[in-house]
Amino acid sequence: MKFLLDFFPIALFFIVYKTMGLYAAIYAMIGATALQMLITRFQTGKFEKTHLITFGLLVVFGGITLAIKDPAFIMWKVSVLYVVFALALILSMWIGEKTLLQRMLGKEMKLPVQVWNQLTWFWGVGFSGIALVNAYYVDIALSTRSALFNTSTLDSKVELTEIDCTSTTVEQLCLAAQQSEEAWVNFKLFGTMGLTFVLIIITVIFISKYIKEDKAS
Fold first, then answer.
1. Burial class of residue 3 (count of CB atoms within 10 Å of its CB; 0-12, 13-18, 19+)
2. Domains in the chain, number
3. Is the pTM of this model over 0.85?
4. Which of 28, 31, 39, 49 is nearest to 2 (CA)?
5. pLDDT tens-digit profile of 156-202?
6. Domain of 40?
7. What long-range pairs does 137-140 form, CB within 8 A, spacing at least 24?
């Protein structure tokens, strides 16, 4: 249930993008993230730090994108967010008595300190990997977008989804820009969710033997 709640804003972003475009999707995601925070606050009695960080970055990067009509900021926000998470995890190994993972999950399961450290490195590297993959899609999307607007008289503040490529003199560049932006949006939902799910599965397999040993003892 929590997994679905965490990805609800991204899913809504995807749906609104497909029907109404990028800028409307940003507004929808900001609202969905605020709702996500309130639901968590109601269920647990407190705000989650990850939600607060996500919401803060979304408001800043999404706000800049909406203000100047440049999607680069909202696209790079994904990589920034995952790098922040990765750094927070890894630095927690030297700050405080417990890692972030142990503070978050230590009440539900007991694992050796070495295992908590290994998991922390694993998730830190995993989040860094997601940031790099997102950067790959962003680079392609922004490159094709720049190529389109630099070689045409189209207004760069117009949403790509609103352009009828067949009516332009740069149809192939237009289609490439639209497809690359859509590929980034698809990765934002399916890629981040899929890769996170893979990290969860590997984690469960890795710690399963320690949980069995704990129950046996």
1. exposed
2. 1
3. yes
4. 39
5. 999 999 999 999 999 999 999 999 999 999 999 999 999 999 999 99
6. 2-216
7. 137/75, 137/180, 137/183, 137/184, 137/187, 137/191, 138/72, 138/75, 138/76, 138/78, 138/79, 138/184, 140/180, 140/183, 140/184
